[in-house]
């Protein structure tokens, strides 16, 4: 888009824009097979659910790819 002198958006431009918008929609974090960790649904890298003395502090985004995360409720 920046290198396009005619200011016409290309298919690649639209792909990047749509991809960025979809990462803002929270996706449910997946549990690993062991159940000890969580996995980002977008990039499949391990993410941690931060623990504190007052319960879990859920990180809102994957630190690797920026995907917004939705966490399961814990009882």
Helix/strand-derived class?
Answer: alpha+beta
Strand order across the largest sheet: 2-3-4
Mean pLDDT: 84
For the biggest sheet, the summary is: 3 strands, antiparallel
H/E element order? HEEEEEEE
Describe the structure.
With 75 residues, the chain is α+β, with helices and mostly antiparallel strands. 16% of the residues lie in helices and 21% in strands. Strands 2-3-4 form a 3-stranded antiparallel β-sheet, with no helix packed on it. Strands 1-7 form a two-stranded parallel sheet. It is elongated.
Features:
75 residues; alpha+beta
Give a short overview.
The protein is an alpha+beta fold and 75 residues long. It is 16% helix and 21% strand.
List the helices and strands and how they pair.
Elements: H1 11-22, E1 27-28, E2 30-31, E3 38-39, E4 46-47, E5 50-52, E6 55-57, E7 69-70
Parallel strand pairs: 1-7
Antiparallel strand pairs: 2-3, 3-4, 5-6
